[in-house]
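Bench log, entry 3. Co-assembly request; chain sequences pasted below exactly as received.
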Amino acid sequence: MIERKKRDLGGTVINIFALLLVLSYAVPYVYLLMTALKPAADVQQIPPSFFPNRITLENFRTVLATPSLPAAFANSLLVAVLTTVLSLVLAVPAAYVATQYRRSFTTFFLLFALVTRMVPAVSLGVPLFTLLKSIGLLDTTLGLVLAHTSTAVPLALLLMAAFFEGLPKELEEAARMDGCTRFQAFVKIILPVMRSGIAVTALFSFIASWNEFLYALLLTSEKGKTAPIVIAEYNSVYGLAWGPMTAAAVLYSLPVILITLLLQKQIIGGLTFGAVKG
Amino acid sequence: MTENRFVLYMLAPAAIFLALLVAYPVALLVYNSFFKVELIAPDVRAWVGLENYVEAVTSSRVRESALRTLQYTCFALLFELVFGFCAALLFNAIANTSRWHRTIFALPLMVPPIVAGLLWRFLLIGDIGILNYGLVSLGLIDSPDAIRWLSDEDIVIYAVSFADIWLTTSFVALVSYAGLTNIPRELLEAARIDGANALKRFWHVTLPMMRPVLAVVVIVRGVDAAKTFDLIWIQTQGGPRHQSEVFSMNIYQRMVRYGDLGEASASATLFLIVMILLAVVAYWKIWRPSND
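Structure output for the full assembly:
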């Protein structure tokens, strides 16, 4: 009886502890949200208050009225979508043959992808700058897509390779018996089976490109600017415009947070999977 | 179609792409590092051999930024590991009810780094940062400007890592949690029957079983932390007086601000070599046992 009570008490303490820990990690983001909802005049009041005295969408209106920001959001979206499509088209077939038809050069290829993941963005960014400049793709959407894809392909390759590893070889053999060519079997049988793995990989490519900062800073200046660059400029150009800046930050981070909450199981699965396998 | 040809066709697009946009740029990087060349006119170049490398290794600003990268990485990694692993243990202890805990805890992972940097700058900044007001109300410091997190040259490199720690502790926690759930229950049960207390079970069963998972986390997170640019850039742009300038930022500054492509390339090449060496050694150590 006493033993039981002691254990219940222990459980409650652990539960409260876990709750406190979790809440303390959520607090900073909630504060960002609260700040974005404050009237501009209250954002920098001293002493600061956590909750707004009055909730207003003023900061969001200011942000959306700044012409550079909606354009940058559109750019971010376009770049992220194109990067995702391009990296899937390149990585999925390659990861398939690299895991299902092992050769020494496919192993080498996967190792190369693995090493590429360790390449610091700035090291690749320096030559990409001169390269894109020489072919006239500096400050263009296409140029940034190519740069983002260069990091997205290795990531997608490793994730997809991990997914393909669990695929039974019999699936393709059965399709071949039914008269499919290897390529038909891949498109008609394998791809549909792998759709959840492909979806996770697509999501990761999208988020990585959507969040990317250094390449965008280095390779764009006017037309090709993406959302994080414009948000970062609030930091310097407009001095301390914390109100609009927090509103822009909320708008920029919300899509990814919403997608993740919707697909949390797949994403968290993919994240741990990718980390442990890749 | 023969099997070999099929493999080739499927692999070729990705291989060609990576050759053109990874291998070729890296070759270009190494090539550029041997020349004196300005960003504004990259065609005008003079061969200088290893001079750029000598310059990089002997420059105190480069050396300091490399050292700072190490400080930053170790500090961030230590706290992420401790916090993340403890969180995972906690979640594992309440396994049945921890689903929502884990979901909320994962929130920072979804926040773009640039937003996290901005947010932490706002939390830490001079007189309006709410963190110091919190510390005052807890009685830990006397006045809100007692600690100038982002403008004190001695602590800034640690202060900028708070954002990193906040952002990625949940990654460590999630991966560790997955590792913890994979430990066979019978093993812990057997240890309990043998009379091992909770602490002993942790030390002799849980920790050894978690070793490979933790090793992977250290490599993945360590490499990422050493590459950090955006988080620190948005908080301080490397200041005050370069005291939060890490290696990647130093390379960026030398290329964009000073337009010195040759020297930037030499540093970037050194950075690349160190990172790849570290990663290869680490992966080799970890991957080998499971592969054969």
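The two ends of chain A are 49 Å apart (CA to CA). Chain A touches chain B through 94 residues (CB under 8 Å).
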